[in-house]
Amino acid sequence: MKGQITQSEDSKSLLLTIEEAAKRLSIGRSHIYQQMQVGKLRSVHIGRSRRILESDLEAFVNELLDEPDGRGLRVNVTPPKSVVKSLPLRRGRR
Predict the structure, then answer these.
(1) Residue 67 confidence (pLDDT)
(2) What are phi and psi of 46, to 5 degrees?
(3) Full-prediction pTM beyond 0.70?
(4) Which of 13, 36, 72, 85 is packed most tightly, with the most Cβ within 10 A?
């Protein structure tokens, strides 16, 4: 019959929210954001929302499977060095 849906709408979605991507990979949202920050996982901005293409999520998983060291999702991210020198703390009330 025309227009009949054979798969659930969740499995056919082109764009995934951060929460949906994290749920599919069984990892936390913060880890998804970290992978996007280091450039391992691509995403798009739509208005104020961030979405991940399903194909990009699959490519990310395939890259993890192809890594020779088997480290998977572990990423060593060093925080940027502070440009501003630390200021002495004030004593007493402001």
Answers:
(1) 79
(2) -125, 105
(3) no
(4) 36
Residue 48 has, within 13 A of its CA and on its CB side, a CA count of: 0
Residue 11 has pLDDT above 60, yes or no: no
CATH number of 13-66: 1.10.10
Contact 29, 58 (CB under 8 A): no
Angle at 32 between CA 30 and CA 34, to 5 degrees: 70
Confidence label for 50 from pLDDT (cuts 50, 70 and 90): very high
